[in-house]
Each structure stands twice: as structure tokens, then as C-alpha cells.
Amino acid sequence: MNNNIKDVFFDLDHTLWDFDRNSGLTFKKIFEINNLEVDIERFLFHYEPINLEYWKLYREEQIDKPSLRFGRLNDAFLELGKALEKDFILKLSNDYIEHLATYNYLFDNTISILNYLNKRYNLHIITNGFEEIQHKKMYKSNIVHFFKTVTNSEMVGVKKPNPKIFKFALSLAQANVNTSIMIGDSYEADILGAKNVGMDTILFDPKNHFSENNQKKIQNLNQLRDIL
Hints:
Layout lengths: L6 E4 L8 H15 L6 H20 L5 H15 L6 H14 L10 H9 L3 E6 L3 H10 L8 E4 H4 L6 H11 L6 E5 L2 H9 L4 E5 L12 E2 L10
Parallel strand pairs: 1-2, 1-4, 2-3, 4-5, 5-6
């Protein structure tokens, strides 16, 4: 156990909330609502890497929120050889946001590890996700009560890895950087971002893609019991 840590900051999507699983189910639902015949597996095969690339551009302030929401869908359908009308893409995009919190699968052991940590530390969220949907995800997946503060990028006007969002979150939490730790799945946004303001970090890497020896890493959230 690290007795020095008092405040634990989590990313939400891809770290606690199983974004890919919930997103795939949401697309299946909205395609049915809109009578759109698409092979969901083929769509997700193209959409998921496109979505990650758009989020990278969004993090780097190269595109705005409407461009992300339209572009990721439009590009995925073009990869499938489907050129859809702009208004239809926009409707699908709105339907997706509206229904995204319908499904709220969490990663294995999320509730048990939050119960464990909540007795020992102050817990917080730092997320780049859209403000209107993040609270809904946390509420419907029954984890919102674990967190003393939630900082999202739209509150601050910048996104992880920008140091301003970490400094804002630390201030909101009344936490000291030297007794705080950040846990997230993105090496660029969560780990490097937190390290740049002096925070300790743990990378959540369930598929074991990351190999740097000097970085604390877990593949299952339950492994946090061995570190914290």
C-alpha cells in the first residue's frame, strides 16, 4: 500500500465505463430505430479506430465538438461504401448521444475496487468526454456516489493532456499534487498529462499493449489492491 496517496483520480471512458461495449450496443439500437441496415461488426471495425483518431484531433484542439461528432460517423460509413445525407448523419449523431447511457457496462471489478478505494482515499474523475453525457453514464451505472469531484474538459475549456485540466481538478478536489495519483487508459492523455504536473500515475492497459518498464501498469482494476 502507498500510504502517501490521499486523492485518486480516474479517467471514465475505457477505464471504468466500458466505452466500446456500450457504444457498440448503442449503435445497434440507433440503426434499428432509423431502419438502417448495416452489418454492425463491419461498421464497428471501421468506426472504432476512426473515432480514436477524431478524439486525438479533438484533444489537440484541431477540430471542434460538432466536427468530431459528424466526421467520425461520416468517415465510417464512407469506409463501408455508404454515402449518407448530411442531415441523416447528424440525426444518427444526436440519437447516439441521446441513447449512449442506455447501456452501462463497467469493466470487471469496477464496483468492488471503488468500494475498496472509497474507504481509504478521496476519489475523483477527470474526463475529456462531453459534459451532457458523462454525468448520465456515472449515474446510470451507479458509480457517481463514489466521487467527490468530477472535472470534465468542457468545464475547463481544455482537454487532457493539457496541464490546465489537471491543475483545475486538483484545485477543485483541494488535493496536493504530491499525494495524488491518476489512473487512466490513455498514455498520452492520462499518463503523460498527469506526469507533466507532477502526479503519480497508473496506466490501465487491459489488452497489454504497453511495454515501458518504468510505468506502473494494471490489466485488471482489481490489481489496484496491490498498489493502493
